[in-house]
Design a protein that fits this description.
- This protein is an alpha/beta fold and about 475 residues long.
- It has a single domain (about 50-440, about 445-460), classed as Alpha-Beta Barrel (TIM Barrel), CATH 3.20.20.140.
- It is about 35% helix and about 20% strand.
- It has helices at about 70-80, 100-110, 130-140, 160-170, 185-195, 200-205, 210-225, 240-250, 260-265, 275-280, 290-305, 320, 340-350, 355-370, 455-470; strands at about 5, 10, 15-20, 20-25, 25-30, 40, 45-50, 50-55, 60-65, 65, 85-90, 115-125, 145-150, 175-180, 230-235, 255, 390-400, 420-430, 430-435, 440.
- The strands form four sheets. A seven-stranded mixed beta sheet has the order 3-2-7-17-18-19-20. Strands 8-11-12-13-14-15-16 form a seven-stranded parallel beta sheet. A four-stranded mixed beta sheet has the order 5-4-1-6, with no helix packed on it.
- α8 (about 240-250) links the parallel β15 and β16 (about 255).
- It is globular, with a radius of gyration of 23 Å.
- The structure holds N-(aminocarbonyl)-beta-alanine (URP) and zinc ion (3 copies).
Length: about 475
């Protein structure tokens, strides 16, 4: 059965034009005027865009003594409800665990996904087994490797491990990723704050000032440059980190920065709310920042120094957050956002004139697809591409509330915010999963999307490495050794 989308305006990262879209066998079969199909979706007054891709989620992740509450079932259902048609989750080996073993665990969870998904692999420890298995992971279609420079004593890796892993990623044609915060300084500041009686959630924000992020981002950039590997900096939250990324890009380094929708629309005042639950629910790393940092992130998206907008969706219930009563370092770190990323970015980005609709598509989908080598299967409205599409009604409105959300948790950090711009339909490989705000998707419909190593970028970097590699200088007349 074929489906045709009629009456809308196609909006891609580089073009806007009126056309119909014909879908057959889950892919875009034709784009043009006057197309017909078995089933017709009315897109009058709407924009036909590539479905969102969220490059950063943590679904059912073991973390800080618990598991994040949204799994692949509720998480991907929330994604589709908000116009996101693909997520990239982090397979996270516990320290000492093999990478392939961790992958098996993630395969067991992801079978319930409603939309397509891929993985990044986390490097949480270093050793011969990790080095060896990284090649197998790449063969499985997972080409991006995340490193935590924070969470000391748990997931954090040190600089020697970072350098060794980055070199391996570079040799494998992969992409290095970092959670950039100086974990040693955070641990030190946290201990001091607790000792001084700062035990509430605001202590979390005080323990992670922008400098810890700026320092780590700059360090990761320099280590990646020495290793000859492209670098993706997750959850860039502040000017200090953005400045390092901007500078690196101006110097021709292959570095990308990823602000989160949370950091773009919520600020640090949340942590000073008198209600403990309110503040703790918003504890995540890095923490929300002040207006100056938010302005920097928006400017980065506008100018292109920051490339994509993600959620880092890692949702915990109020009950889980309460583990940290009396000690902010025990509050599970993470917030949700999968259902709200696209409507919020449209409202605060396009609705305010900060982003054009085409830039919106670039930062929510196409740039991500290109960086992760998913393009044009994903992130495109082109003949042959997967029909992962969102038919976007720029005038539709709602007020965000946990009462009607797909996420499994009991609150929403964006509660009460009004959004203008919502999906009329969300299609995953041609199947309508959301229609007029109603989710009717199928658990298990989602498929794993493997990715190839990124030969172009890495070949350029390795050519440069080869040209500048250390070589002994040929000398004649070497003086006799000794005196
Ligand atoms: O606080 C956060 N961001 N939790 C999820 C894990 C991570 O650091 O990305
Ligand atoms: Zn992180
Ligand atoms: Zn509240
Ligand atoms: Zn994360």
């Amino acid at each position: 059965m074929s489906t045709v989308i009629k009456g809308g305006t196609i909006v891609t990262a580089d073009l806007s034009y009126p056309a119909d879209v014909l879908i057959e066998d889950g892919r875009i079969a034709a784009i043009g005027q006057g197309l017909s199909g078995d089933k017709v979706l009315d897109a009058t007054g709407c924009l036909i865009m590539p479905g969102g891709i969220d490059p950063h989620t943590h679904l059912e992740m073991p973390f800080m003594g618990t598991y994040s509450a949204d799994d692949f079932e509720s998480g991907t259902r929330a994604a589709l409800a908000g116009g996101t048609t693909m997520v990239v989750d982090f397979a996270l080996p516990s320290p000492g665990q093999g990478l392939m073993d961790a992958l098996k665990m993630w395969d067991n969870k992801s079978g319930r996904a409603h939309c397509d998904y891929s993985y990044h692999m986390a490097v949480t420890w270093w050793g011969q087994q990790v080095f060896d298995e990284m090649a197998e992971v790449v063969d499985r279609g997972i080409t991006s490797f995340k490193h935590f420079m924070a969470y000391k004593g748990a997931l954090m890796v040190n600089d020697d491990e970072l350098f060794a892993s980055f070199r391996r990623v570079g040799d494998l044609g992969g992409l290095a990723m970092v959670h950039a915060e100086n974990g040693d300084v955070v641990a030190e500041l946290s201990a001091r704050l607790l000792a001084e009686g700062n035990t509430g959630p605001e202590g979390h924000a005080y323990s992670r000032p922008p400098q810890v992020e700026g320092e780590a981002t700059n360090r990761a950039i320099m280590i990646a440059d020495m290793a000859g590997v492209p670098l993706y900096v997750v959850h860039t939250s502040c000017e200090d980190s953005h400045e390092a990324i901007r500078r690196a890009r101006q110097h021709g380094k292959r570095v990308w920065g990823e602000p989160l929708i949370q950091h773009l629309v919520l600020d640090e005042s949340e942590y000073f709310n008198a209600d403990w639950d309110h503040a703790a629910r918003r504890v995540m790393s890095p923490p929300f920042r002040n207006k100056l940092h938010q302005d920097s992130l928006w400017a980065g998206l506008q100018s292109g120094s920051l490339s994509v907008v993600a959620t880092d969706h890692c949702a915990f219930t109020t009950q889980q957050k309460r583990t940290g009563i009396g000690d902010f370092t025990k509050i599970p770190n993470g917030t949700g956002g999968l259902e709200d990323r696209m409507p919020l970015l449209w409202t605060h980005g396009v609705g305010t004139g900060r982003l054009t609709p085409n830039e919106f598509v670039a930062v929510t989908s196409t740039n991500i697809a290109k960086i992760l080598n998913l393009y044009p299967k994903k992130g495109a409205v082109l003949v042959g591409a997967d029909a992962d599409l969102v038919i976007w009604d720029p005038k539709a409105e709602k007020v965000i509330t946990s009462a009607s959300q797909q996420s499994a948790i009991d609150y929403n950090v964006f509660e009460g915010m009004k959004v203008t711009g919502l999906p009329r339909y969300t299609l995953t490989r041609g199947v309508v999963a959301v229609a007029d705000g109603k989710v009717d998707s199928r658990e298990g419909h989602g498929e794993f999307v493997g990715r190839e190593a990124r030969p172009a970028v890495n070949r350029a970097l390795s050519a440069w490495k080869e040209l500048t590699a250390p070589r002994p200088v040929e000398r004649s007349g070497i003086p006799a050794s000794g005196v």
